[in-house]
């Protein structure tokens, strides 16, 4: 019910924001000067303004670099733990503190997200599932959402050329406030449940009755059959599913080739739209295969009376629920491509909403995000959008942050026995991104209003 409420809030708020463009457009008599408008290449962010000169500061030790290193480390650590990446923090940091132009800042931000995601995936591959003898990465959910998210990202990037700058800022605030509020509510509910569970377990440890009815105080028993401890290599092998990884890599490669071909073809030409449309059968083909698989497995479990679903998530894989997942995947990717978030701000909260436990939700969201962010980095590299020395340095910082962030949070969960810590971090990162990107977006929108710039929708072909 809460999930439907969040979706209803997002759809209604987005609809009102988009409809308001027509009203503002009628109040604006200015023709669109093409040099001042938002333009984006595939998987870029809202900070891409055509006409912005390339500004690449030198990589040298100063207070700006130190502050950027600290913010980048903390943002990467918290972002990967929550499964959202942290792009909403990196882009303002790179533009305001380091001094990069907005295009280069967006490209370097993707490098940082990729580095943190890859290191987090490597760490998670060496961690067992907290409750089951299954991989901590849920490959079924990754295969279900990855193609739809990547398809949505490409659609969102195309829409970002058409949508006015101020509208994207409004959508950012609506999305991030909605998802952060829902995630915070989810975290508080989990915290309460964990407190109740800890209280009950403490009472059981304090008072125990033996087989003779004698009351025992503070008695601890060793299990008759000790739990088998696995080595790191054994955990790594059990977490890897090479068949699933190869399918995800095939989808990633297909989208990369199509994007590279599309970038080298005349915009709005026949071949441009042919290549653009080829993304749909790839995404829907993989999603359809995984949907049929999950649907059959669900029917089989129900026929034998096993109601347990993957990752302890109470998901009934009916046709309606699978269609809902497809819609959320496409909408999440579209919003991610439109806002430049890469989809992580949607996928992380969505996995929690459908009932996936926080450790698995974080690991799976980060795993999927590694594919989408690396796709962006390859495209930006081919387009020569970022300085390699600076990108390598900040990527290295993010790699270290992603690993140590996962390590420290896992230690905190083990000490306090509260997985809700992950959800609190997720909520905090999204809210911080709403503040940084919202404030800067509002400031730039006010400048556009003062300069009497065009505030309506742009033509897709004419804006390229």
What does this entry show, briefly?
The chain is mostly helical and 464 residues long. It has 14 helices and 2 strands; from the N terminus they run ααααααββαααααααα.
Task: Please write out the topology.
Elements: H1 2-27, H2 63-82, H3 87-98, H4 102-124, H5 139-162, H6 165-206, E1 207-209, E2 215-217, H7 232-239, H8 242-263, H9 270-303, H10 319-339, H11 344-353, H12 358-382, H13 388-416, H14 420-450
Antiparallel strand pairs: 1-2
Helix pairs in contact: 1-6, 2-3, 2-4, 2-13, 2-14, 3-4, 3-14, 4-12, 4-13, 5-8, 5-9, 5-10, 5-12, 6-11, 6-14, 8-9, 8-12, 10-11, 11-12
Structural class computed from helices and strand pairing: mainly alpha
Question: Residue-averaged pLDDT, rounded?
Answer: 79
**Number of individual domains:** 1
Radius of gyration, in angstroms, nearest whole number: 24 Å
In the predicted model, the low-confidence regions spanning at least 5 consecutive residues are 29-52, 218-225, 309-314
User: What's the helical proportion of residues?
Assistant: over 70%
Estimated share of beta-strand residues: under 5%
Main sheet properties: 2 strands, antiparallel
Distance between the termini: 42 Å
Shape: globular
Explain the overall architecture:
The protein is mainly alpha-helical and 464 residues long. It has one domain. It is built from 14 helices and 2 strands. It has helices spanning 2-27, 63-82, 87-98, 102-124, 139-162, 165-206, 232-239, 242-263, 270-303, 319-339, 344-353, 358-382, 388-416, 420-450; strands spanning 207-209, 215-217. Strands 1-2 form a two-stranded antiparallel ribbon. Helix 1 (2-27) runs antiparallel to helix 6, helix 3 (87-98) packs across helix 4 and helix 11 (344-353) packs antiparallel against helix 12. The radius of gyration is 24 Å and the shape is globular. Mean pLDDT is 79; it is low at 29-52, 218-225 and 309-314.
């Amino acid at each position: 019910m809460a999930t439907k409420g969040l979706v209803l809030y997002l759809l209604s708020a987005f609809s009102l924001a988009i409809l308001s463009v027509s009203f503002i457009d009628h109040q604006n008599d200015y023709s669109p000067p093409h040099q001042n408008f938002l333009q984006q290449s595939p998987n870029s962010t809202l900070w891409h303004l055509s006409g912005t000169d390339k500004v690449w500061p030198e990589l040298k030790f100063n207070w700006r670099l130190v502050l950027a290193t600290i913010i980048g480390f903390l943002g990467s650590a918290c972002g990967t733990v929550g499964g959202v990446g942290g792009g909403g923090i990196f882009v303002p940091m790179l533009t305001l503190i380091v001094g990069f132009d907005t295009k280069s800042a967006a490209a370097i931000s993707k490098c940082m997200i990729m580095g943190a995601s890859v290191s987090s995936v490597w760490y998670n591959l060496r961690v067992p599932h907290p409750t089951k003898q299954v991989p901590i990465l849920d490959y079924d959910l990754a295969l279900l959402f990855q193609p739809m998210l990547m398809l949505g990202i490409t659609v969102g990037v195309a829409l970002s050329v058409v949508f006015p700058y101020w509208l994207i800022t409004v959508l950012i605030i609506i999305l991030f406030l909605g998802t952060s509020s829902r995630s915070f509510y989810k975290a508080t509910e989990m915290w309460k449940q964990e407190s109740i569970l800890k209280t009950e377990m403490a009472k059981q440890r304090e008072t125990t009755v033996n087989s003779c009815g004698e009351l025992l105080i503070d008695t601890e028993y060793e299990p008759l059959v000790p739990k088998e401890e696995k080595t790191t290599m054994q955990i790594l092998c059990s977490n890897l599913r090479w068949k699933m990884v190869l399918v995800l890599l095939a989808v990633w490669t297909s989208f990369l080739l199509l994007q590279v071909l599309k970038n080298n073809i005349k915009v709005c030409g026949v071949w441009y739209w042919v290549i653009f449309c080829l993304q749909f059968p790839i995404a829907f083909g993989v999603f359809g295969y995984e949907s049929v698989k999950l649907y059959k497995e669900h029917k089989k479990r129900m026929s034998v009376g096993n109601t347990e679903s993957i990752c302890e998530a109470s998901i009934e894989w009916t046709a309606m629920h699978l269609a809902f997942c497809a819609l959320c995947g496409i909408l999440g990717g579209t919003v991610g491509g439109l806002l430049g978030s890469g989809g992580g701000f949607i996928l992380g909260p969505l996995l929690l909403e459908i009932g996936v436990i926080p450790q698995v939700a974080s690991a799976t969201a980060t795993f999927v995000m590694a594919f989408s962010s690396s796709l962006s980095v390859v495209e930006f590299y081919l387009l020569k959008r970022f300085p390699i020395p600076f990108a390598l340095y900040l990527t290295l910082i993010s790699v270290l942050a992603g690993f140590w962030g996962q390590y420290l949070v896992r230690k905190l969960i083990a000490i306090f026995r509260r997985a809700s810590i992950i959800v609190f971090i997720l909520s905090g990162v999204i809210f911080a991104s709403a503040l940084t990107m919202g404030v800067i977006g509002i400031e730039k929108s006010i400048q556009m209003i003062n300069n009497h710039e065009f505030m309506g929708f742009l033509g897709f072909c004419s804006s390229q």
